[in-house]
Hints:
2 domains
Amino acid sequence: xxxxxxxxxxxxxxxxxxxxxxxxxxxxxxxxxxxxxxxxxxxxxxxxxxxxxxxxxxxxxxxxxxxxxxxxxxxxxxxxxxxxxxxxxxxxxxxxxxxxxxxxxxxxxxxxxxxxxxxxxxxxxxxxxxxxxxxxxxxxxxxxxxxxxxxxxxxxxxxxxxxxxxxxxxxxxxxxxxxxxxxxxxxxxxxxxxxxxxxxxxxxxxxxxxxxxxxxxxxxxxxxxxxxxxxxxxxxxxxxxxxxxxxxxxxxxxxxxxxxxxxxxxxxxxxxxxxxxxxxxxxxxxxxxxxxxxxxxxxxxxxxxxxxxxxxxxxxxxxxxxx
Length: 323
């Protein structure tokens, strides 16, 4: 199951009209990278839950045929159900054996096969794929007991504190047995870390920890989206990318930027570390740095989510500076 129902408020205005996993990442829907990852390990039957702008995923992914998988959807309405409430809504489809749950906003090459081996060896109710939080980013610490199983969830790392080994963090990849439904509340929104794993641990059930080695990227903020996109581009010797249908004047200067579909960049424009949404026209002579530029309206501006960065309308475009 791929979790794709979130609002993506910290990515606004990129999430106007689309959910976070439907964002383009290097000219492909972000969720398509998750599908390819799961397919690599033999998972061909997938469920995707939806809530915010559900058609933005359906229209791009369809039934999964082009990815070599079979996809069904679980639409959560009128309310979003949370990470474990999402499972409760489709529990009848998840009772046949071991299943995997994964956030649809991540890109990774962590070895899921090795995590599955840990899960079977430990005869675990659940196995969480963890990694070392080397940069001590804002991810809650996962605590282990003397046997190396998950004992609970701690606090967020203190900024700038580098004493001791890097804390462990949860990657958003769960391996689960159907018995997990004994601990998932029925018919209500619930969260796995808050509502499911603590009572399961208290009941003596094994929540195994598999500490993975490799790359893991989570694109939940504008800065992370840009930084990770640029990291991937630099591997191929590129400093910026434009999707299909873009028209760029030869006098424009573009550096370390991401242009979505059908962007028009007029004469003398300078863009540095910008993300430009579909169908945007950048007027001649404009200079933007570290900004998201999308087509926007006063209504979009008025409906800015609480966690989103502030922006302003410049002509027909909504401009949100960041960093």
